[in-house]
């Protein structure tokens, strides 16, 4: 049976990665647990942790992974029983491959020179080509996941090179796509970011412990301090108390994913030196500056539209009103993909404070419209509660094209803006007016940062 999430009218990141190298004798499984919890918004389908002791035997890896949220997969006894001062962790949302345990990460493999555990975020667009080559060599098989293909590629290089970082470098030179990868070997932690910088990856420190993660919020969650972003194409190796950088592959045009700032990242993260909160606030301001609509109040759709709504309200000098009550205890509900059940799921998650909206002209802010089903339900709820007018403002341009870099933007046929004009979308969702952020406004959001905007303009960087 096909199952869809109650948030199936939202985009999702593929996953989040976390790696840590602490002094010998310190167990890192607890830190990975909390780091993954801080990255839970990036993936809710599976979670996994792999740890090793740098003073122990080669290949002595302790790993557990399972389906569900971090706290559902790991018990207190699981974490206390995982010993090792080096480790990697992963939370997953499937965009390629099914939502099954076989696709959960980390991927851990033993080979003649030792072992590796690998986690990655994003999508390798030439994974199919690499898999065919590996199958001819007798490595991969037809059902191998992209993560296994990555692991086989690194192992093949490792059998020819002297160090794991050289192996990662050799494999990385053959990859195409948007990705962030962390590899744990028995003695080292090696991280690599795609040369365009599509996927984020940062490094931090806590005393003598180095931490690598998808977002700075995860470093902060374990008491660490952000050092910097790993540069696009850079390979960072942590060994003992030392850190080494290889920038040989840092030579491609950059194209950072704009949706990290629109929606994916936690609002307290800083990605490529741009605070996510500030970017979203400025997006709301840009929407307001282009808008002549008369309104009484402004509200944001929890949680994705709240900060842009702050920026809009501040620019317009309008009250920012908490119109919705969000039920935080629904959990990971799954529903059948019918319009009625989607509507019921939204109503379970959100309810409207009728006294706040009755007879009011409302501007409602959200980060995107994908299929339009959720926004239509929300607008109906506001009208049933007595709203006089409902004007929708979206802090991203219309979605027109799919994403191939690890974001689940569906095919163009499922994107409402790709099939209908703005006026037709407005009619379908039942709004009094509808306006989107302009692509030119991304400069207001993120300054001079080079961006990947392919899902809006069909300009794919890789």
Word description of this protein:
The chain has 462 residues and is of the alpha+beta class. Helices cover 29% and strands 26% of the residues. The chain has 17 helices and 25 strands. The chain has a seven-stranded antiparallel sheet. The protein has a six-stranded antiparallel sheet with strand order 6-7-8-9-13-14. α9 (276-289) crosses α10. The longest helix is centred in the middle third of the chain and has 14 residues, at 276-289. The model is unreliable at 1-7 and 332-336 (pLDDT under 50).
List keywords for this structure.
17 helices; 462 residues; elongated; six-stranded antiparallel β-sheet; seven-stranded antiparallel β-sheet; alpha+beta
Mass-distribution shape: elongated
Low-pLDDT residue spans: 1-7, 332-336
Task: Please state the average pLDDT score.
Answer: 90
The portion of residues assigned to helices is 25-40%
The counted number of beta strands is: 25
Number of helices: 17
Q: Major beta sheet, specifics?
A: 7 strands, antiparallel
End-to-end distance, in Å? 35 Å
Rounded Rg: 23 Å
Main sheet strand line-up:
4-3-5-2-11-10-12
Strand content: 25-35%
The helix-and-strand class reads alpha+beta
């Amino acid at each position: 049976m096909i199952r869809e999430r109650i948030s199936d009218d939202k985009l999702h990141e593929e996953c989040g990665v976390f790696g840590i190298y602490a002094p010998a004798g310190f167990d890192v499984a607890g830190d990975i647990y909390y780091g993954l919890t801080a990255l839970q918004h990036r993936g809710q389908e599976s979670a996994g942790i792999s740890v090793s002791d740098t003073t122990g035997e080669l290949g002595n890896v302790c790993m557990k992974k399972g389906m569900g949220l971090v706290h559902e997969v790991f018990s207190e006894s699981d974490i206390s029983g995982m010993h090792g001062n080096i480790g990697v962790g992963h939370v997953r949302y499937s965009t390629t491959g099914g939502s099954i345990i076989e696709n959960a990460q980390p991927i851990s493999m033993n080979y003649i020179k030792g072992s590796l555990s690998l986690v990655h975020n994003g999508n390798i667009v030439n994974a199919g080509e690499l898999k065919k080559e590996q199958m001819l060599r007798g490595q991969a098989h037809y059902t191998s996941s992209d993560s296994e293909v990555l692991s086989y590629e690194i192992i093949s290089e490792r059998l020819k090179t002297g160090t794991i970082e050289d192996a990662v470098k050799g494999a990385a030179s053959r990859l195409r796509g948007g990705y962030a990868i962390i590899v744990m070997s028995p003695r080292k932690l090696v991280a690599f970011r795609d040369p365009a910088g599509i996927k984020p990856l940062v490094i931090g420190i806590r005393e003598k412990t180095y931490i690598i993660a998808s977002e700075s919020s995860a470093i902060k969650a374990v008491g660490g301090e952000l050092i910097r972003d790993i540069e696009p194409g850079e390979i960072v190796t942590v060994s003992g108390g030392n850190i080494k950088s290889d920038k040989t592959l840092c030579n491609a045009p950059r194209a950072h994913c704009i949706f990290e700032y629109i929606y994916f990242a936690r609002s307290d993260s800083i990605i490529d030196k741009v605070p996510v909160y500030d970017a979203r606030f400025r997006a709301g301001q840009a929407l307001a500056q282009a808008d002549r609509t008369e309104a009484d109040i402004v509200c944001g759709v929890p949680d994705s539209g709240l900060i842009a709504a702050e920026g809009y309200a501040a620019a317009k000098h309008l009250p920012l009103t908490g119109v919705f009550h969000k039920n935080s205890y629904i959990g990971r509900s799954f529903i059948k993909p019918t319009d009625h059940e989607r509507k019921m799921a939204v109503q379970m998650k959100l309810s409207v404070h009728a006294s706040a909206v009755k007879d009011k002209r409302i501007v409602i802010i959200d980060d995107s419209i994908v299929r339009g089903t959720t926004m239509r339900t929300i607008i109906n709820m506001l009208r049933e509660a007595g709203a006089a007018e409902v004007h929708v403002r979206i802090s991203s341009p219309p979605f027109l094209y799919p994403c191939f870099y690890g974001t689940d933007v569906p095919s163009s046929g499922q994107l409402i803006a790709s099939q209908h004009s703005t006026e037709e979308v407005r009619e379908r969702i039942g709004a009094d007016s509808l306006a989107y952020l302009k692509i030119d406004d991304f400069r207001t959001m993120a300054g001079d940062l080079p961006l990947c905007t392919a899902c809006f303009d069909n300009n794919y960087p890789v």
